[in-house]
Amino acid sequence: MSLSKIALDMAEKVRPILVAVLPQRLLSDIKAKVISKGAKELEKTEIKPFEPDRYPGGINLVGSIKSDTGLGQSMRLVAHIIEHSSWDYTVYEYFVPPGDSMNNTDYDSKISNEFKYNVNLIHVNPSEFPLAFMNVGKEHWDYRYNIGYWLWELEEFPEEWIPAFHLLDEVWTPSEFISNTLRKYTDKPVYTLPYSVTAPTDPAFDRKYFGLPEDKFLFMMMFDSGSGMVRKNPIGAIEAFKKAFGRENKQAGLVIKLNASEQSEKDMEYIRSILDGYDNIYFICTTLNKVEVNSLTACVDVFVSLHRAEGFGLVMAEAMLVGTPVIATNWSANTEFMSEETACMVDYQMKTLEKDIPPFKKGYHWADADTGMAASYMKRLYEDRAFYEDKRKRALEHIRQKLGIQRSVALMEDRLKQILEERK
What we know:
CATH architecture of the largest domain: 3-Layer(aba) Sandwich
Number of domains: 2
Strand order of the largest sheet: 2-1-3-4-5-6
Oligomer: single chain
Strand content: 15-25%
Number of helices: 15
Helix content: 25-40%
Radius of gyration: 22 Å
Shape: globular
Number of strands: 14
């Protein structure tokens, strides 16, 4: 075991104490430096070349499939594609701290510590990839075809993560937006395997269940403090809502859903400080299971995402699938399954980051949505029922075709077949 791995393991064991006495930013910086050092060490690692017939044909899926975070849901969506394919697979549960709730049991029957098969599909982002390699062990990389399934949100990519490419034969992503970014930083294959989106709901999880008013037209935005409040931009959604509806309008409301996490209390404190006396803004600060989240999205009237960048935009796709119209920034990966016909697409200006907002760095670029235009869409959806129904129906029809399971399965099987044919 390397010194980097020992240091990280010890840090996680004392994490509750460290969080209480040290700023989150400092903890993140320390962890990033240790992982970066580990990545440089691993650049010297020589992985034994792929031998297709050394192990049975199948997929060892690696990642945190039990996590109730967006990363956990992404992992389960990849498992869902494999489940509907002709490929056998197992799941190696790799925990990426901090993991918050780890209560999902959908794929417990597939979890195993064995690496039975000849393909590794490692659903761990490049920031954590060296640690995952140390955790899993080189012997499970050797002689297999190693694919990373990565998520990222901008057109620039951190230099310190580039060594992670060395540990892979190729990379898969859920969007061409991410794939096009990564292709600038590697000559290894980068392949797009979009999610097949499902959104099961339960009528028991209604407005009453969530403590929301039943007599108001509700907009909702959602973010996870762990994935960055600034990128998800709840402040933009609040400003748009305030421009669309004055304090005197009590028939419209805004729901802000965020996961309970180490950072969420501070985020909520800041958001409350800018509400300017609006009493029709409602907070849900808890970690919900996926059916609860989908049901919450279905029981509001409009979903709003004035994000600055998205690697896919899963919640927007799920909102379209449950029949909730979407207002969204017209930039990044969500534009691959949304258009002006199927959603209310908001103009933006590209902005340069003036300081580091980890993991994003000073000098990187992202979108700043036009809150005035978003406010206009809010008012129109609130006032114009025909416009509302048109967006809802078009979105539902489009998303079922665009992100259906058959397409995702075919793309995955075609690529794996091509890999095996080339190597044999």
